[in-house]
Amino acid sequence: MNRTEFIIATAIILLAAFALGWFAYWVLHRFTRVQGGDMAELERMAQQLHEAEETRDQALYYLETREAELTSQIAQTEAELRAAMDGLREARQEAEEMRAYIERMHSQG
Predict the structure, then answer these.
(1) CB 5 within 8 A of CB 13
(2) 72 contacts 64 by C-beta, under 8 angstroms
(3) Is there a contact between 42 and 34 (Cβ–Cβ < 8 Å)?
(4) Which of 31, 70, 107, 108 is the most buried (most CB within 10 A)?
(5) Which residues are CB-neighbours of 1 under 8 A, at least 6 positions away?
(6) What pLDDT does residue 33 have?
(7) How far is the C-alpha of 45 from the C-alpha of 50, rounded, in Å?
(8) Is the dihedral of CA 59, 60, 65, 69 positive or negative?
(9) pLDDT at position 37, please?
(10) Given this model, what pLDDT does residue 9 score?
(11) What pLDDT does residue 107 have?
């Protein structure tokens, strides 16, 4: 083995050792990721999640309250509509009776 072949073989071995070391570091880093600085980020994310859940609960409470109010208004409006329709029906009936009475008076006179 001459000097050039020895340098090339050494370079290949060193490159393979570097790649193997980098891969081992990457694998280790992937499995032991939740430490130190990552814990602070997890705490922050947990706090944000908690705040989002509280906001969602408030929104749901508001929607339920608003839905109850609107349901009540609809029921009240429907009751008023029924009363108005009944009043209109009675007024039409009374107007029809008055027309019939006027026609009878004209036909007698």
Answers:
(1) no
(2) no
(3) yes
(4) 70
(5) 9
(6) 65
(7) 9
(8) positive
(9) 64
(10) 94
(11) 87
Domain boundaries, the chain: 1-33, 37-108
Those residues with Cβ within 8 angstroms of residue 9's Cβ, 6 or more apart along the chain or in another chain: 1
Residues composing the chain: 109
Structure tokens at 93: 């009936």
pLDDT, residue 90, reads 95
Q: Alpha carbon of 95 to those of 1, 12, 22, 108: distances in Å?
A: 124, 109, 98, 20
**Rounded Cα gap, residues 63 and 48, in angstroms:** 22
* CA dist., res. 109 & res. 106, Å (int): 5
Task: Quote the pTM value.
Answer: 0.48
- Amino acid letter, 50: H
- Alpha helices for the chain (secondary structure H): 3-31, 37-108
Mean pLDDT by 10 residues, the chain (109 residues): 91 96 90 68 91 96 96 96 95 94 86
